[in-house]
Design brief:
About 35% of the residues lie in helices and about 20% in strands. With about 625 residues, it is of the alpha/beta class. The longest helix is centred in the C-terminal third of the chain and has 23 residues, at about 440-460. The chain binds 6-O-phosphono-alpha-D-glucopyranose.
């Protein structure tokens, strides 16, 4: 969802802006633009569509992206927009200029009272060129800027923020002060890359890590004034705020495709390594060490119930977590989609532990839900991939998934690491509570240690899935069915397919199909069924018969040890054996590969599916 980059320094500014926007493309967007100061004047180039369209427009306007040359531009801001107020169009793209042409802004977030502010400004004679809420901010800053005796753009931004209700990462450039960028933040991520004779502000580290590894994570309700050699952060009352500079641990190469056709494929191939860095690294001397979360018997004695909150793929990891914790620890767990949580009047007090799962650590629904849980007295534990993200900073405790940067919108390796952490938590809690014997605890750790090798074995036979997908990609509708843990696996498999191939799909508990949805099964309908739970395999066999006798084509994903069972399916994809509790970690990879090849066969934009954003920072 929207990406921001702002640069002041010695490099080719246009190149830095466009490279930054390219690095932020993965967040999801439908138009892009840049604004910069040249010869004391603010200039603007923006286009509906991809950053490649913007690049063409920049070249047509005579600017070079060659790093050895420059365009005599030393200050600029850029933006990728995911439309909210106003359709994707050249006019609605950011940046937005104020009426006198001196002030330019890019914005992530939503100005909730924009209609009221627009009416106020219209009465004052302001004319608007777009339908966006953001243009209101540009005009409002100009309004306050013009009313002051001396040029004080920072004070004008501060005054405008007093009127604005909503969320924002707002970056402002003013032609009167060409060597300065102002940025205000509330509820939207902003990081500042600190360089030598250059500084850069952006929505995330991917846009800055080529230039510097030193970053500042900006806090809410703060205003940054930045020149190429100075950084000052104040609160909204103008008081200076202390900040600390931290090091980015990710390597710039990890955010490249590295020879793979798509990031999604690369990221699936990184699953064994990501699982190792996240899970195996926490298994030491027959024990699980949850760095960042010093849990012991005393802590757990105070926990009477657990909430798990997340969105999308992370929610599906949460569902598996609920199953594991309840089964192994006998603690009641509620797993809720974050966007519903605040409105469900949840039963929470200080004996509740709320576990929040988020790859980005910035999903607004998840953040709001975590804040609500905190307000109601809950303890909070975040499982997050992006270090320094808002959720990571606001939770009482954090366990990081070390998946590295995940660029493809469809989450794959991050999901597998989230699952891994849920297993670690469930095993650790159950052992502390005395519900898992030492022997079983150690045996389960051994099973976890074997997972990376088994994921690699699945990747080695990915061509089986590729072949099957090449016969099925014209399907109109696909059903995923499973029982127990396999039902949660089906939910994730169905979501993955929908996200990137745009094929309609449903996931259903195996036993529920006959209560309605089986009406949709007809000759040739594809049904995919993971069957990894031995005690449920007999029941699944009946469910598969129910659909195959009605003409369905059935793909079963099944561990070696169950593979001889005479399922009436058309195709079996065999995964390695493991303890049945852990098999869903293996079962999801063939489903991800299936979604990938279906999308590739259909010619879809796998890494950047239509309408979706990687990091969703609106409610
Ligand atoms: C978006 C993405 C999903 C993701 C969800 C939660 O909707 O498109 O792939 O699962 O957000 O993201 P998070 O960063 O909180 O895990």
């Amino acid at each position: 969802m929207c990406g921001i980059v702002g640069y002041l320094g010695h490099r080719n500014t246009m190149e830095v802006l466009l490279k930054g926007l390219t690095a932020l493309e993965y967040r999801g967007y439908d138009s892009a633009g840049v604004s910069f100061i040249q010869g004391g004047e603010l200039k603007l180039i923006k286009r509906k569509g991809k950053v490649s369209e913007l690049k063409k427009a920049v070249a047509e306007a005579g600017y070079t992206l060659d790093s050895d040359k420059g365009n005599n531009i030393h200050a600029g801001i850029g933006h990728t927009r995911w439309a909210t107020h106003g359709a994707p169009s050249d006019e609605n793209s950011h940046p937005h200029l104020s009426m006198n042409g001196k002030i330019c802004v890019v914005h992530n977030g939503i100005i909730e009272n924009y209609a009221e502010l627009r009416r106020f400004l219209t009465k004052k004679g302001y004319v608007f060129a777009s339908d966006t809420d953001t243009e209101v901010a540009a005009q409002l800053i100009e309004y306050y800027y013009e009313r002051r005796d001396e040029s004080d753009i920072e004070a004008a931004v501060r005054a405008a923020l007093q009127d604005i209700i909503g969320s924002y990462a707002l970056v402002v450039l003013c032609s009167d002060i060409p060597d300065m960028i102002i940025c205000a933040k509330k509820d939207n991520p902003v990081i500042i890359g600190v360089g030598e004779d250059e500084n850069i502000v952006a929505s995330d580290v991917l846009a800055v890590m080529e230039y510097t590894k030193d970053v500042i994570y900006m806090e809410d309700n703060c205003i940054l004034t930045m020149t190429r050699d100075q950084i000052e952060i104040k609160d909204i009352f103008g008081e200076k705020v202390e900040y600390k500079t931290e090091k980015i641990e990710w390597d710039a190469d990890t955010a490249q495709k590295g020879g793979y056709k798509h990031f999604m494929m690369k990221e699936m191939f990184e699953e064994p390594k990501a699982f190792e860095s996240t899970v195996i690294s926490k298994i030491r001397n027959n024990d699980i060490v949850l760095e960042g979360f010093d849990v012991d018997a005393e802590y757990l004695s105070g926990i009477k119930n657990i909430n798990i909150i997340a969105c999308g793929t992370a929610y599906h990891a949460g569902c598996v977590g609920k199953y594991l914790i309840e089964k192994l620890c006998r603690i009641p767990v509620v797993c809720t989609v974050a966007s519903e949580f605040c409105y469900s009047d949840p039963i929470i007090d200080d004996s509740t532990l709320t576990i929040v799962i988020s790859q980005s650590g910035e999903t607004l629904d998840t953040r709001n839900a975590m804040r609500e849980a905190k307000n109601r007295g809950s303890k909070t534990l975040a499982i997050v991939n992006v270090i320094g993200s808002t959720i990571a900073r606001e939770a009482d405790n954090v366990i990081y998934t070390s998946a590295g940067p995940e660029i493809s919108v469809a989450s794959t390796k991050a999901y597998v690491t989230q699952l891994g952490v849920m297993y670690l938590i469930a095993f650790k809690f159950a052992h502390i509570l005395g519900k898992l014997s030492d022997d079983r605890y150690i045996a389960l750790q051994k099973e976890l240690l074997d997972i990376p090798g088994k994921l690699t074995a699945i990747l080695e036979k990915q061509n089986e899935i590729q072949r099957f997908a090449s016969t099925q990609f014209n399907a109109d509708s696909i059903f995923f069915i499973g029982r127990g843990l396999d039902y949660f696996l089906s939910m994730e498999a169905s979501l993955k397919l929908k996200e990137i191939s745009y094929i309609h799909s449903e996931s259903y508990p195996g036993g529920e199909l006959k209560h309605g949805t089986i009406a949709l099964i007809e000759e040739g309908t594809l049904v995919v069924s993971p069957i990894t739970q031995p005690e449920l395999s007999g029941k699944m066999e009946s469910n598969i018969k129910e659909v195959s006798t009605r003409g369905a084509t059935v793909l079963v994903i099944i561990p070696e040890k169950l593979a001889d069972t005479a399922f009436s399916c058309d195709v079996k994809f065999i995964i390695p054996n493991s303890d049945e509790l852990l098999t869903p970690i293996l079962g999801v990879l063939p489903c991800q590969l299936f979604a990938y090849y279906m999308a590739v066969n259909k010619g879809c934009d796998v890494d950047k599916p239509r309408n979706l954003a990687k990091s969703v920072t609106v409610e």
